[in-house]
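User: For this week's homework, look closely at the record that follows, marking any run of repeated tokens, and judge whether sequence predicts the tokens.
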Amino acid sequence: MRISAVLKGVQPSLGCTEPGAIALACALARRAVGGEVQRISVVCDPNVFKNALAVAVPGTSGLCGIPIAAALGALAGDPDLRLEVLTPVEADDVRRAQQLVTGGRVDCRVDRGYRGIHIEATIQTVSGTGRAVIEGTHTGVTEITANRDPVAFPGWAARLKDDATPPDFLVGRSLQDVLALADDLSSSEKEFLLRGVRMNQAAGRMGITECPGMGYGANRARLMEDGVLAGDAAGRATALAAAASDARMSGLKVSIMASGNSGNQGIAGTIPVAEVAWELGADEDSLARALATSHLVAALIRSHTGDLSALCGAYAAAAPGAAAGIIRLLDGDEAAIARAISILVGNVSGVICDGAKAGCAVKVGTAAGLAVRTAYLAVRGVGVAGTDGIVASTPEESMRNLGRLAQAMQRTDEAILKIMAGKQDLVVGTG
């Protein structure tokens, strides 16, 4: 089994992946039917709705929300680019999209009956009605129709649908199983992983230079330069990861490599690994193996918690993944990785996800720095006992407990969504 078949959610993304997935569904529906767009309707599950509600859409000078993402996807999106669907957007496209939104021709609602990722996009044009459905993952296309007649999927979507790897492939796998996958990388997989971390580092450098969003990463970098904050690997990882999140969440047109279809998890799961690799002088093969470990361990955790939940994925999945990758750079063993997982599950397992927004940079940066510190402590033999809280005697059981926690926090998720929607005078419907 190649890791590329397991890690389908490791892919380039422009902007936050939830509005990106909404734009993708709208672009697919519009392409199916053709013609001038007249009306747009989007229905999505609560977690996609939560993460797309208040985050800036790339290329719009800071415009936020589902309606603008949907309109841009329908008017100018290129569905062949998947989660980089909004790359072609230009200023005139933004103007036309705003006209659709302000004219009341874009309807977006949440259906609380759905658990898991679900997006339905219906586009009415002068040529009829196009419809596209995405389920399960951010690029999991399950239906495209034009005037109710089925339309062939794009090549990439057809390949994903026909992939023999079941979506729950990692469920029940052991930590040892996924570490073995990271030891068996093809040359193309190595280059893909290295290209991904370079993309994320470039986004971080842009965030430091331009100081977008809340400027959390850029200001941390300035404080390191001034000697106020430590400029060690953990400090550098915090600043660069936060700056990358600042850049993408504020709507800059910069692509990053996602993990589990989450851009912020991709950032938090790769940048700290690369910072430690640089400090150690590790070669590219070692870095690629460490990055594979990070993505795989995070994916193993998400097989229990789900891709989207009330838990912040940067802490619940990406930080343990990054810590595992760093431990491999430090020549630590599986037992050290298990200790790192116990530390992080026992430390930050209850951090909530309150939607995608500029403030995510704080969480992403903190998770990145925490991964570095945790890895070094775990290699020294530090761990949380299996008798403590939700931490268990094995990493696999700790992950299962994390999944149980995520499931139990569904009411927390509903409360978060109501608070967020209330800020924008939106009604959260039941279906």
Remarks:
- The longest helix spans residues 187-210.
- The chain has two domains: 10-162, 175-419.
